[in-house]
Amino acid sequence: MSRRNQAVGAYGERCALQHLITAGMRPVERNWRCPHGEIDIIAWDGPVLAICEVKTRRTDTFGAPAAAVTGPKARRLRVLAAQWLAETGTRADEVRFDVLSVRVTAAGPPRIEHLKGAF
């Protein structure tokens, strides 16, 4: 991944994090990593633990941002969530998997779509 794409992705994650906070969610972890992958954001939405995948795009050339979360990616996030829960000892009655699509434009603020329970 190019440095420019990394910068766009990092910017999108910061925007998504602020969006979640503004919506009243409580982030507990950001960019959690293990040998099997990474979870972008983990946050409480009331009693529900949300595992959030952030996808940022500058154009729709390669499709909508959320379309990048394919079956294999969803399965990997489920495994990562189980590992995070086990490692931290966190208990949650409900775990939800969300996708935040961030579209960055040259003019104006980014557009953020929060798909709760995306998979």
List the topology elements.
Blueprint: H1 3-22, E1 26-34, E2 37-45, E3 48-57, H2 71-88, E4 94-103, E5 111-115
Parallel strand pairs: 3-4
Antiparallel strand pairs: 1-2, 2-3, 4-5
InterPro entries: Restrct_endonuc-II-like, tRNA_endonuc-like_dom_sf, UPF0102_YraN-like
Family: Belongs to the UPF0102 family.
GO molecular function, one term: nucleic acid binding
Q: Can you walk through the features of this model?
A:
The mean pLDDT is 94. The two termini are 26 Å apart. The chain is of the alpha+beta class and 119 residues long. Strands 1-2-3-4-5 form a 5-stranded mixed beta sheet, sandwiched between helices. The protein is globular and about 40 Å long. The protein has a single domain, classed as 3-Layer(aba) Sandwich (Trna Endonuclease, Chain: A, domain 1), CATH 3.40.1350.10. The chain has 2 helices and 5 strands, in the order H-E-E-E-H-E-E.
